[in-house]
């Protein structure tokens, strides 16, 4: 498969990726960051998959059931037609909690004729490190491994289990199912029971989407991206994952391969801001609680990232037995970046706290704790803002004074002052305002390069960086300020490549990047929109939407030449920026329509 032509299904406990031909090629159970049970995505031979095979006469189409996370793959040779409805169950329980078991349902829907298919079922537990054996029992097929550690997986089905495991032909005359479970079922599953799970899960997603606003333009794209962000949230703790995968490379054959199944404070905070804009305040409240639970002692620095169950140590190791996505080694699990210092996270976090207090101030139980966190953040920023760090892009080389980090230190003070105003803390306002102005002056003096007429990547540098485009959305500078306008122009001239953006062009620890970072292109489109070049921005936006996969999903990167998707998938960062762009365009178009009708 040349592109990331996958759909994601999930239930806010784990997720799975299904190819456009209906092959289950990636799934970790029981949770997002557990070892994989299917990982063909990372090794065609050793990873393991669950494939539905039909003859070449069958045409295959795939789409989501509208406004849900249920993926429908349709197989048709004209007369003989069937569908697979893939999903991970999620629905309300009577006690107000959610039923979200660690399992995948593949509901086989008979449509017409006498469709025939066979199954290739080959899970490889524990990242395929040891031998996985399969045993057909009376009620299920159990797969187990015990070389690395003991682990099991269960398959229940309405079809003949021996035929399934032998890859024999199945002729479909009525609906059937496959149920892949991490745990043995107490009650034996049936077709009727699986049909009920399908309907309940459908209702859950339809209700979830209905809670959000409807937009005049790009509503379908906003909804699909919103569902994708929801699929990357972990219900148990409120954590938000950067992506559902590990080690999908930024460039084929290179070593920029990272594990993204963790919660980056920056990414997650940006996601939560967008999700609450879409009306889902429970996700925002759970994430705030996740942060409150993680907040260290008042003198201890916040990490840039944590495990989804609040783990603080994310030791990085390589799985050398796996070939990697299209031969791109190494495959990594864990992420050494958790040790890095990135000073921008305090501003990002403070921005989210301020937004939530503004929107839901009467509905937030932890106001005192949030005020304590606010004071703690200001104290840490005051102590450390003059120090260099690794920056937003996690350079693994020497620390620098990155402009984006400094701007976000200013954001921390700006939002803290606004929170202090809400609580009538006048002495804090006076004290913090002095520091806020000092940071602002420092940025204008040191981040502005008059020779290239732009804000640059780091103090004293001549390199441009797409992250400085965020100076305007965070309120550091006005969109029409000549300094911002000329920065946007300089970035367009230097970092844009056929409408797609480099993060930066200076060589980093791994040489010059050869793929575009998707979120940067969305940032650039937004900045063009803000400085008044709306028509140009809209054209670029519509073109960029065309680079998504067949289901409207984006990964982290896009190859400049081929436009194929690269990097971990689906990427929360990319989808949150898509939503921000789409909402801006939709609001603008709605305003224009109102003005036209008045006129």
From TrEMBL:
**Keywords for this protein:** Hydrolase
Q: Name one GO molecular function term.
A: hydrolase activity, hydrolyzing O-glycosyl compounds
- Write the signal peptide boundaries: none
Q: InterPro entries given for it?
A: 6-hairpin_glycosidase_sf, 6hp_glycosidase-like_sf, GH15-like, Trehalase-like_N
A Pfam family annotated for this UniProt entry: TREH_N
Residue stretches making up the GH15-like domain: 219-582
Span of domain Trehalase-like N-terminal: 8-130
Q: Which domain of life is it from?
A: Bacteria
Kindly list the biological process annotations in GO that this record carries: carbohydrate metabolic process
Q: Per its record, how is this protein called by name?
A: Glycoside hydrolase family 15 protein
The organism's lineage is: Bacteria, Pseudomonadati, Bacteroidota, Flavobacteriia, Flavobacteriales
